[in-house]
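Notebook, p. 212. Picked up where the previous page left off. The plan for this session was modest: take the two constructs that came back from the sequencing core last week, fold each one, and keep the raw output in the notebook itself so nobody has to go hunting through shared drives later. Recording the first one now, exactly as returned: residue sequence, then the C-alpha cell string.
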Amino acid sequence: MRKVFLLVLTAVLAGFFSFSIPVIAADYPDIAPLPERKAPNPKAVELGKALFFDARLSGDAAISCATCHNSEKGFTTTMPLSEAYPGSKHWRNAPTLLNIVYKGKTYGWDGRLDDLDDMLRDMITDSMNMNMDMQLMQERLKQDPKVVQMTKDAYGDKNMGTSQKGEMTHYVARNAIIQFLETLTSKNVPFDKGNLSAKAKEGMDLFKGKAGCIQCHNSPYFSDNKPHNTGVPENPEVFKDPQRHFTYVAYMMFMGVDNRMNWRRDVGYYTISKDRKDVGKFITPTLRELKYTAPYMHNGMFSTLDEVIEFYNQGGGEDRPGMKDAAMKPLGLSSGEKDALKEFLLSLSGDPIAIEMPKAGKKIEYAPVPNWKEVRN
C-alpha cells in the first residue's frame, strides 16, 4: 500500500513540476544566427532590382513590388493594411521581404503557397495586387533596350522559357527578382554577432523560458512557419471600408470559402484547410528586423512592440472556446522582464537596408489609339 502511495505521489509531483515549467527550449528548434548562403549572380541581381522597382510589372503600370515593400520602411509599409491595385484595397498587412529566402516553404499570412517563385507569380498576376498578365509583362520588357541588354548580360548562357539564350521571359523576370530578394538579408545583427547586452541576454532567457516565445518563434528565421490562433483582434477597417471588404470577399470566393458573405473576421488558415478549427490561424511571422517593420500582426493592429509584448503577457486575445492556441496563457512578466524581452527582440534587427530606386530605362510610350473618324476616312 505504501509503495502504491509513493508511486502516486511521485506521479503527482512530476505532473506538478512539468506543469510549472511552461517551456522547455530543447523541445523546439533553437534560435541561431542566419546561415551563410551562396552569393547570387550579381548581374541577375541588378536586373532583379530594376524589375522590383519597375511599375511596368503591373497591369496599368501604376505600382511596382516596391509600392508595398518599401526599402526605406523595412521592405514593408507603415500602414496597418496594405495598398493594392488601383481601384481596390488590401485587407492584410504587407509582410517584410527581409530574409524571405530563409523562410522555407510557407508563404503568405495564410500559408497558401509553398514556393517563392509561385508566390511571386501570384503577387504579379493577382487582380488585387499587380493585375498583370505574364505574357504581356514579358513583351513589355522586351521593348526596353536597356532591360534587353541586362537580360543578355545576366542570362546569356541560359534559355528560360524560350529557345533563344539570354532572351527576356517571364521566367527570367521572376528568377531575377528572386535573386535580388536573396540579397535582402540582415546585416550586423547584435544577436547574430553574439553582441548582446546583459539585459538582452536576460531577455533571451525569458524568450526561451518563462515567456515561451520559442514555441512558435524558433530556428534562425525566428518562425516555425506554422499557423496559430493567438486571438489577435480584428481590424474593423476590413469590414467598414467597402473596397477592402469587397477585395476580401473576392479572395474568399476565389479560394472556395463557404458562407463568405457572412464572415466578419479574417478566417486565415481556414481559407486553405477548410477545417473549422483553423479559423483565425495565421502563419508565424519572423521576429527579425522588428525595429523597422511596425505596425505588427497580419492586420497591423499593434503599432508598437510594447503593445505586442503586453498582448502576449495577457495570454493573447479572445476567441471562441477551443479556437485559440493552447500555448496562449498569461505569462506574468514584470515590467523589468518585459523591458528585457523587448531589448532582446530589438537585438534581432541590424543595419537598415535602404536601396535607391534604379533606372531600368525610359518608360515605354505607347502609341495613342487613333480617332475612329480618322480610321474610317
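Okay, moving on. Second construct, recorded in the same format:
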Amino acid sequence: MKLWQKKTKLNPRIEAFTVGDDPVLDMKLVKYDCRASIAHAKMLEKAGILDPNESKQIESALKKIIELHDSGHFIIEKDQEDCHTAIENHLTESLGELGKKIHTARSRNDQVLAALRLYYLDEISRIESAIHDFLRAMHDLLKRHGSIQIPGFTHTRKAMVSSVALWAAGYAESMADNLRLVHTSRDLMDQSPMGTGAGYGIPLDIDREYAAALAGFSRIQQHATYVQLSRGKLESTLVHTLTQVMLDLNRLASDLILFSEPTFGFFILPADFCTGSSIMPQKKNPDVLELVRAHYHRILANEIQLKTQTGNLISGYHRDMQTTKKPVMESLDLTLNSIAIMTLVAETLDVDKEKCAAGLTPELFATERVYELVRQGMPFRDAYRKIGGEFE
C-alpha cells in the first residue's frame, strides 16, 4: 500500500508516469531512510507516542532492513513507488499494527528530504576524500617531474617558459579552493528537515532537535516553510560546487590531450589508458580524458536543470521537486568517478624530457631578454620594441 493510499485506485498509466524511475534511484536511499526513521522512532518514544519496547522493536526491524539491503535482498517494487513506502510496508508486515505508527508526526515530504540529505552528506564526504587523493597525486607528480621546463601558452601560442611544477601547482591550488565550496555545500546540506511535515509543521509536541541529533544532523531548519523552499536550492548549490571541481578536471584533461599528442609530446600517457581505432591500427586515443572533459558539460546541464526546474514555483511542495533527485545523484557519481580517474592519470603520468627541451624554442625567452635589458638600465618600452623587432 502506498503512503497516501485511499479508496480510489490510481490509473495504471498515471501510476507508471508519476513513479518514474524512483524504485531504481531509491536503492541508494534505503539505509538513509532507515537511519532517519530510527531517530524518528526514538523521538516518538520521547513524545510518549511509542513506549520503549515499541521503539526498540521498530529500531530492530529497521536495522534488519539495512542488513537485507546491504546483502541485496531488499527490493523496491514498482507499485511501492519508492523506498519510503517499501520500508513502511516491510515494517507493517513484520510488526503488524506497530509498523503503522512510524509515520506519526511526519509527512513523506520531510521523510524524503531527510533521507536525501543524509545521503548527500555522505557523498560530499566521499567527494572531499577524493579531492584530497587527487591533490596528493598532483603534488607527487610535481615532486617527480616538477623541475622539467615546458613551454607556457597564451592564446594557444607559445608565450613564456613554464615548468611541470608551475603547471601542476596551478591545478592543485585551484582544486584546493574547490574544497572551500565543498565545505560550504556540506554546511548548507547539514540541516534537518525532520518534523516539519509537508511544510507547515506537525500538530504535536515533538522534539525536532533531538531527532536531528540522533539522525546525524548538526542543526535543524528553523522554519517549516523554508524546508520546501530550500529544495532545489541546496541541491543546485551542491551541483554548482561539483561543476567547479569538474571545470578543473575538464581543463586538465584538455591540457593532457593536447600536450600528450605526438606533435607536442611533453606528457606520456600509459599505453593501457588509451583505446584504439577500428580502422586505423596506429591510433592510441585518449578517450578517458575526452570523457572526463565531456562530463563537465553534463553536470553543468544538471545545475541549470535544477535551477530552472524549481524557479517560478509558489511556496510549498510541488511534485516537480521529485525530479531534482536524479540530476544530483548523476552529478555526484560522475564527479567521483572523474576525480578517481584523473587521480590515477596523475599518479602514472610520465614526462618526455627531450620533447620538453625541444619545445623550448627562442621566442619563449623573449620576455626574459627584455628584462635583462631593463636591468641594464634601458626603459621597458624601448627594450620591448628592440626584442620584439626580432620576431616581426
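Notes on construct two before I forget. The radius of gyration is 28 Å.
Flagging for discussion at group meeting.
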